[in-house]
């Protein structure tokens, strides 16, 4: 049998039992990038996209997604989130929007999926809001950047890793 904890003795997928785990403060940080054309970045920065405020809408979408992760990802536990922060930044070289989500809870299980879901949905929202003017958009580099708390302890991604 594999080391995956979502597989039971019969080889079936299951939700992991976390009732016996200690409640700890947990933080998950994830990031992602939306690569766009220079003109698209200028449109996003200006706030003049036809669908409205791209960055503000993506921020709200990411927060909402983090809160609904258990509805979107099979076998995720519903968590009472204590904080969700989604930051979006426009950067010129290469033209892109970087998305970072920081999600916190006090609980018995990790928060990584909530952070990754927040970033994914925020990136998809940026894409959706400007796709009519830029078909070359690419969403890249969605990954966990940091996790704190829990039995396995703290972890930070190597910034040089792809």
Automatic annotation (TrEMBL):
Keyword Lyase recorded: yes
Residues that, per the record, bind substrate: 75-77, 113-114
Lineage top rank: taxon: Bacteria
Catalytic activity entry: (8S)-3',8-cyclo-7,8-dihydroguanosine 5'-triphosphate = cyclic pyranopterin phosphate + diphosphate
Recorded family membership: Belongs to the MoaC family.
Function: Catalyzes the conversion of (8S)-3',8-cyclo-7,8-dihydroguanosine 5'-triphosphate to cyclic pyranopterin monophosphate (cPMP).
Protein name in UniProt: Cyclic pyranopterin monophosphate synthase
Transmembrane domains' residue ranges: none
Pathway linked to the protein: Cofactor biosynthesis; molybdopterin biosynthesis
GO MF terms held by the record: cyclic pyranopterin monophosphate synthase activity
Domain Molybdopterin cofactor biosynthesis C (MoaC): 15-150
GO biological process entries: Mo-molybdopterin cofactor biosynthetic process
Assembly information from the UniProt record: Homohexamer; trimer of dimers.
EC numbers for this chain: 4.6.1.17
């Amino acid at each position: 049998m594999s080391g995956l904890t979502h597989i039971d003795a019969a080889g079936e997928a299951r939700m992991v039992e976390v009732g016996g785990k200690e409640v700890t403060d947990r933080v998950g940080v994830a990031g992602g990038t939306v690569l766009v054309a220079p003109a698209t970045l200028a449109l996003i920065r200006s706030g003049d996209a036809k669908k409205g405020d791209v960055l503000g809408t993506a921020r709200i979408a990411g927060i909402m997604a983090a809160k609904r992760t258990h509805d979107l990802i099979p076998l995720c536990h519903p968590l009472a989130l204590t904080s969700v922060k989604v930051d979006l930044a426009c950067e010129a070289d290469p033209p892109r929007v970087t998305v970072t989500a920081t999600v916190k809870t006090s609980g018995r299980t990790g928060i990584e999926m909530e952070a990754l879901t927040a970033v994914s949905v925020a990136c998809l929202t940026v894409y959706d809001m400007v796709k009519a003017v830029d078909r070359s958009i690419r969403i890249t580099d969605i990954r966990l950047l940091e996790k704190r708390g829990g039995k396995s302890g703290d972890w930070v991604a190597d910034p040089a890793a792809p």
